[in-house]
Amino acid sequence: MLKLTMKMEGEKMKIEAIVIVVIMAVIAFVTFYIIGKYNRLKLYESRIVNKWDAVNKLINEKTEVLLKTITFLREHIKEEEVTYNDINIIVSNYNNLTNINDKINEYSNLEEAFDKLYKIADINSKINSNVEYNMLKEESNNVNSKIEYSKEFYNNEVNVYNSKTSSFISNLVVKMFKLNKYNIFR
Q1: Rounded CA separation 115/69 (Å)
Q2: Given CA atoms 53, 55, 61, 66 in this order, what sign does their dihedral have?
Q3: Which residue, 164, 181, 183, 138, is CA-closest to 37?
Q4: What's the Cα-to-Cα distance from 47 to each of 107, 160, 167, rounded to whole Å?
Q5: pTM of the shown model
Q6: pLDDT one-digit tens code per residue, 17-75
Q7: Is residue 94 within 8 Å of 106, Cβ to Cβ?
Q8: Distance CA 132, CA 162 (A)
């Protein structure tokens, strides 16, 4: 009877050891799976940041053209000083932002600033025929084309990231590690 009891206790210990090993294996699998998901999402996130850096560099070029245009127009149309100052504030606000989504949201204000400047210039026929002004306008158009092209690459990366983060487990990882969410740049 003692042998039977000892044998049953030995069997019970083997089962407990197997259960412990299985539980540890499941925990290890889940941990490594989550770490893998996190690493993949961080990789996609770094691709987004790289693509954004390219877009942002072009936007900075565009703001330089905007500021050159303001300087040019200040010399020729002095009565618009309030508008020029307002536009300088818009450029400054944009440059002070650090978050990608905030910059995307603020970009429309830069576009409106350019439109205001061109409307001011369009009213004055002497400025429209000025070679320097037309060169600035052409430079702006070239940069705009490059921005549109770069935005496509950025948006593609954001779409991939957003689709990857929409699955159940990935969404949990995003929330658990407080990963960033990214907006499409329209």
Answers
A1: 12
A2: negative
A3: 164
A4: 21, 10, 19
A5: 0.82
A6: 899 999 999 999 999 999 999 999 999 999 999 999 999 999 999 999 999 999 999 98
A7: yes
A8: 44
Nearest to 87 by CA among 56, 62, 113: 113
* CA–CA separation, 40 and 108 (whole Å): 32
To which residue do tokens 């430079």 refer? Answer: 139
Q: Which residues of 66-80 are buried (b: 16+ CB within 10 A; e: fewer)?
A: beebbebbeeebeeb
Any idea which residue has 């412990």 for tokens? Answer: 20
Q: Maximum distance among all alpha carbons in the chain?
A: 113
Query: Which of the 8 DSSP states describes residue 80?
Result: G
Query: What does the alpha-carbon distance between residue 114 and residue 108 come to, in Å, rounded to a whole number?
Result: 10
